[in-house]
Design goal:
The protein is α+β, with helices and mostly antiparallel strands. It is built from 17 helices and nine strands. Helix content is 51%, strand content 7%. Belongs to the cytochrome P450 family.
């Protein structure tokens, strides 16, 4: 047989096998566009702007539809009703973590973000209790945030009103807050280890949002056999984990079982309590994964939101002026902002919410998975199926938010100017897998932004019309474009 004919026959067989795999076992999955053999629907999705593609497909197939990433089916939930029904009404069934090969290569199933089953439940419960014990949502952690806000103001004053890139300056404060909880102490802003870690986290978020990582997640074999920016992510996280491991070793030497000082101490004490339990999830590997998750997530998402928020305030000086008028009227200049002020500052509160709504930081959240066979509406979703929830479709719903593509704090104000809550406000996702640190993040955003605007006038070195607020990436996360601004002391 001619070699070319043999190759053609082999390829045909592979294509037929792929088609059979895609059609068999499908049960009554939701409808969706017809997939191509091997590659699925990848050519029908703009991997630079997945959210936009999902919206277009939902117009044809409705709020619940199936896509194939490679040969694997993924069910997409689009719109508030579908997302709420799954994550809140059927929260336990949709509480699994879906496939995310790049992250799985890093975490290997440990930690909070990408673990599943018993391990995830125990780590989440332990983390929530421990974070609360160390002040999350209480006055004690508010005082830490206020102190860090004052340090941030001093650092911004050192720029002397000159044009600067705020990327890393805005990472210092949220990073130090989470470090004080998990590592016991904060870093000096000039500490080179501190700066190196922040640069690695920032680089990772940018790479994770690139089209190449979407290719890696859809075709996992790429991760092991091809060069690319995914290797930079793996290298950066290895450095972060090595740093965390050194901190764990230091804590093991100084541990006082009767006087735990931070998250790591509490975890080590729990490990000792369960040392005879062969099934215990409290191991060094789990501690390393959990602390790394808290450190990375507690730093990068908040600092990126702060940075994007300042860019939006630069672009909209009329909003900035209204916030600063409210600060002057409610707080003045002689004391630090506190969380009690928020109830008397509806416009500022609305501005912070609108920043989170508008930037839509993680547009499709992290992937979920169903923990059992689920009857959802008229469909049967098999156990283990990956679920994508379009948070964009909720945060930018034009029925809930008039002109959702416009930055307008009025989206969270009623006709009398009072703050108006919205069930559609889901920047932290919803249900069983919603962000563990939501309370801390919301406190940080209010106090940091309010403190900055209390102390500085924001000035752009370029004309207002030239300020670009379009995110530079549109897949995993929305990252603001690089920009310069001047912090002019008031």
């Amino acid at each position: 047989m001619d070699l070319s004919v043999a190759l053609a026959l082999c390829l045909s067989c592979l294509l037929l096998l792929s088609l059979w795999k895609q059609s068999s076992g499908k049960g009554t999955l939701p409808p969706g566009p017809a997939p191509l053999p091997v590659i699925g629907n990848i050519l029908q999705i703009d991997i630079k702007n997945i959210s936009k593609s999902l919206t277009s497909i939902s117009r044809v197939y409705g709020p619940v539809f199936t896509l194939y990433f490679g040969t694997k089916p993924i069910v997409v939930l689009h719109g508030y009703e579908a997302v709420k029904e799954a994550l809140i009404d059927l929260g336990e069934m949709f509480s699994g973590r879906g496939s995310f090969p790049v992250a799985e290569k890093i975490n290997k199933g440990f930690g909070i973000l990408f673990s599943n089953g018993k391990r995830w439940k125990e780590m989440r419960r332990f983390s929530l209790i421990t974070l609360r014990n160390f002040g999350m949502g209480k006055r004690s952690i508010e005082e830490r945030v206020q102190e860090e806000a004052r340090c941030l103001v001093e650092e911004l004053k050192n720029t002397k009103g000159l044009s600067c890139d705020p990327t890393f300056i805005l990472s210092y404060a949220p990073c130090n807050v989470i470090c004080s909880i998990i590592f016991r102490n904060r870093f000096d802003y000039k500490d080179q280890n501190f700066l190196s870690l922040l640069k690695k986290l920032d680089e990772n978020l940018r790479i994770m949002s690139s089209p190449w990582i979407q290719v890696c997640n859809n075709f996992p074999a790429v991760i092991d056999y091809l060069p690319g920016s995914h290797n930079t992510i793996l290298k950066n996280f290895a450095s972060v984990k090595n740093y965390v491991l050194e901190k764990i070793k230091e804590h093991q030497k100084s541990l006082d079982n009767n006087n735990p000082q931070d998250f790591i101490d509490c975890f080590l004490i729990k490990m000792e309590e369960e040392k005879h339990n062969q099934q215990s999830e409290f191991t060094i590997e789990t501690l390393l994964g959990t602390v790394t998750d808290l450190f990375a997530a507690g730093t990068e998402t908040t600092s990126t939101t702060l940075r994007y928020g300042l860019l939006l305030l630069l672009k909209h000086p009329e909003v900035t002026a209204k916030v600063q008028e409210e600060i002057d009227r409610v707080i003045g200049r002689d004391r630090s902002p506190c969380m009690q002020d928020r109830s008397r500052m509806p416009y500022t509160d609305a501005m912070v919410h609108e920043v989170q709504r508008y930037i839509d930081l993680i547009p499709n959240s992290l992937p979920h998975a169903v923990t059992c066979d689920v009857k959802f509406r008229d469909y049967l979703i098999p156990k283990g199926t990956t679920i994508i929830t379009s948070l964009t479709s909720v945060l930018h719903d034009n029925k809930e938010f008039s002109n959702p593509e416009i930055f307008d704090p009025g989206h969270f104000l009623d006709e009398s100017g009072n703050f108006k809550k919205s069930d559609y406000f889901m920047p932290f996702s919803a249900g069983k897998r919603m962000c563990v640190g939501e309370g801390l993040a919301r406190m940080e955003l209010f106090l940091f932004l309010t403190t900055i605007l209390q102390n500085f006038t924001l000035k752009s070195p370029v004309d207002l019309k030239d300020i670009d607020i379009t995110p530079i990436t549109n897949s995993f996360g929305h990252v603001p474009p690089p920009f310069q601004l001047c912090f002019i002391p008031i």
